[in-house]
Design goal:
With about 425 residues, this protein is α/β, with parallel strands linked by helices. Helix content is about 40%, strand content about 15%. It is built from 18 helices and 13 strands. The strands form two sheets. The protein has an eight-stranded parallel beta barrel, surrounded by six helices. The chain has a five-stranded mixed β-sheet with strand order 2-3-1-4-10. Helix 6 links the parallel strand 5 and strand 6. It binds 2-carboxyarabinitol-1,5-diphosphate and magnesium ion (MG).
Amino acid sequence: MANKIKFSYLNLNKKPSKDDIVVTFKMKPQKGFDFIKTAQELAAESSVGTWTEVTTLTKGIFQKLAARVIYLNMEKSVVKIAYPIQLFEKGNIAQLLSTIAGNIFSLKKIKILRLEDVEFSPRYINSFLGPQIGLQGIRKLYKIHHRPIIGCIIKPKVGLSPEKTAKLAYEIFSNGVDLIKDDETLTDMSFCRFEKRVKEVVKAINSLEKKSKSKKVFVFNVTGPADEMIKRAALVKELGGRCVMVDIIASGFSAVQYLRKQNFGLIIHGHRAGHSAFTRNKDWGISMLVVAKIARLAGIDELHTGTVVGKMEGSREEVVSINDFLRSKFGKLKPVLPVASGGLHPGLVEKLVKILGKDLVINFGGGLHGHPLGSAAGARAVYQAIDAATKGIPLDKYAQTHQELKLALDHWGYEKK
Ligand code: CAP
Ligand code: MG
């Protein structure tokens, strides 16, 4: 059906106004459809237009609210669209996504569509709460400023009782790990009730902190229906925990915003399980960079972003750009601490630090509990690897005097930088 456009959405000479939201899409129409016309239809569908002219769309409405195509590159399939700020409700991520990542993904005539990047104006950014604690706040709590935060995921990912979880956490914390987290599928389970787990783990941390000055953080997974999530986080707060985790994709950003709005003063750890359903295909979906920007608006304090060297997909260029964004200025919102996780073991640490730097959490699951001498030795091995990498000492050299690291390198190998 022909779509006659009365007003032109094309405005290649337009410099976006300072409050516009500018979105970069990778876009290619199906065979037989015109690139420039389809780009305009994208702008139309995601702002004031529809498939045909409507008498209710006045010139006044169009001039005020129409999105404009401000850049086109057919060879590279790039389209940039500027959206007037009036199209967006302040502080509403659901409405943002329905606008810039909504119906346009369903249009039949489009073959390739990927939301690559979005630039928000400070006015829009500042309408969100952002992280309550943020990167600096987390480092201040630990009093660790010059090395990566050492993290561990409890494994097996599900199956341990609250008592066994607490015992294991005590052992791992005692051997140099700063943060321990629930896995993303462990919530309130018949074999590991949430409340009991929090109680047992907090007890273990309290007894440990009586003996040592270092602060330990356990990341409790509160993922669930939004009302339950709030109850679980309130419980963590009440029982003396410091951090909660949300599976941000599965739970949805409205739930994350709702949690953030409670101002619990808890660190919010963002797990991104499932993101690859729409971030991984380079010709379709939404980039992880955009997800990271939205997570920061919503109020995540630390976010999984990839490792480059580990088991999860994510190119060096992509992961570095996400981490750089999380630490950079973004309106008045606090920076976010990146989390590298997935398939990591001590032999990968040197390379990882070379690529991603030291300002992040480095998380080990299998690469700690799978140590030939068990979890406590695994904790010592990851500590030694991070200590060596922070000091710039090659791991194989450091391993000559550090037995646990040596065993880990023999077991999993060593990827030199
Ligand atoms: C890591 C992990 C994390 C992934 C998620 C896992 O465990 O707990 O969920 O890191 O990926 O279950 O795989 P291992 P990402 O250390 O045993 O691999 O951080 O890329 O979102
Ligand atoms: Mg996991």
